[in-house]
Design brief:
Elements lengths: L5 H5 L50 H30 L70 H96 L2 H11 L6 H48 L1
Subcellular location: Cytoplasm, Cytoskeleton, Flagellum axoneme
Family: Belongs to the flagellar radial spoke RSP3 family.
Main location: cytoplasm
């Protein structure tokens, strides 16, 4: 008889060694020394599989059917767990815990269920059959021993339906009524929880609106305060600039009170400030006047010279006549 676990049948042989640092190799290969040996026994290597290597792990037909059945059951169990989780997600959940508190999971069912995070594992076993073609062994039937005895039972001696069914009906009706009452109480409790959740959400929304209003009011106050501070700073800055300008103007006037007349006098003496009328008279009028005077004098001189020449001729004629 050989027992093979399900995990061994589904997994293959693997080897994983512990991690270790890579040895630093030399850049150039060195000659091996006589004392150093590179040979070893491979039977001590953990990567070598020991045992017969010619025997293949072949599962019999019955074991394969059992494995298929187990896989189908696991698939059904997984689908049931998925459906149960989906139903749990659809159910109405309790409201979130308040700040500083936390919910605790409490079982409210009639029968307690042990909660554990340990995954259930089970081992499957099978018996290898040496002769697969051999027919099944018949069931063992022990030999009959002892003396047979019998008794006669009439109808109604062991079971009276009208009397026995009364207890069954009471149990069934009681269970139905109890279940109905539990369902009604659960519905009422869920309705109360929904009402409390709605009231809590309304209060929370009202508080959130009030908080947002206060935050907006505080933000407006802060903006107004900053704007007023900026305006006051701007006014103080302008007043400071005006005061500096007034002080600079007064200092400049006081400093230039005696400096300006002396500068203007010096510039006027050096000819930097020219009178336009005087300049016009000197540059335009006087040259024109001199030219006109010269032209008139030239005409008078010419006239006088002409007159003087005629008088000389007359005098010469007179003298010539007198001499004659």
């Amino acid at each position: 008889m050989a027992f093979v676990s399900q995990r061994e049948t589904s997994e293959t042989y693997t080897f994983s060694s512990r991690p270790r640092a890579v040895e630093r190799r030399a850049r150039y290969r060195e000659e091996p020394s006589e004392t150093q040996s590179h040979y070893g026994n491979i039977m001590y290597d953990r990567r070598v599989v020991r045992g017969n290597t010619y025997a293949q792990r072949i599962l019999p037909t019955t074991t394969q059917a059992e494995l298929a059945e187990m896989q189908r059951q696991q698939e059904q169990r997984r689908k049931a767990v998925a459906r149960r989780r989906a139903r749990e997600q659809v159910r109405v959940k309790t409201p979130e815990a308040l700040q500083g508190r936390q919910h605790i999971e409490v079982q409210t069912e009639l029968y307690l269920e042990e909660l554990s995070n340990i995954v259930m594992e089970s081992d499957a076993q099978c018996q290898t059959e040496a002769f697969l073609d051999r027919p099944n062994t018949p069931l063992f039937v022990p030999a009959k021993s002892g003396v047979d005895a019998e008794t006669q039972i009439q109808d109604g001696e062991l079971f009276d339906f009208d009397r026995e069914v009364q207890g069954l009906l009471e149990v069934l009706v009681g269970k139905v009524i109890e279940q109905s009452l539990l369902e009604v109480m659960e519905e009422e409790e869920l309705a109360c929880l929904r009402a409390q959740q709605r009231a809590f959400e309304e209060r929370r929304n009202a508080q959130l609106c009030e908080v947002q209003r206060l935050q907006e009011q505080e933000r407006r106050h802060m903006e107004e305060k900053e704007r007023r501070i900026a305006q006051q700073k701007e006014v103080l800055k302008k007043e400071k600039e005006i005061a500096q300008k007034i002080a600079a103007r007064a200092y400049t006037q006081q400093h230039l009170a005696n400096l300006v007349p002396s500068i203007f006098t010096s510039l006027r003496c050096h000819g930097f400030f020219v009178d336009t009328v005087q300049t016009d008279v000197e540059t335009n009028f006087m040259p024109w006047l001199m030219n006109e005077i010269h032209s008139v004098l030239d005409k008078r001189y010419a006239a006088r010279s002409v007159l003087d020449g005629k008088e000389i001729k007359k005098l010469l004629k007179v003298r010539a006549l007198q001499n004659d």
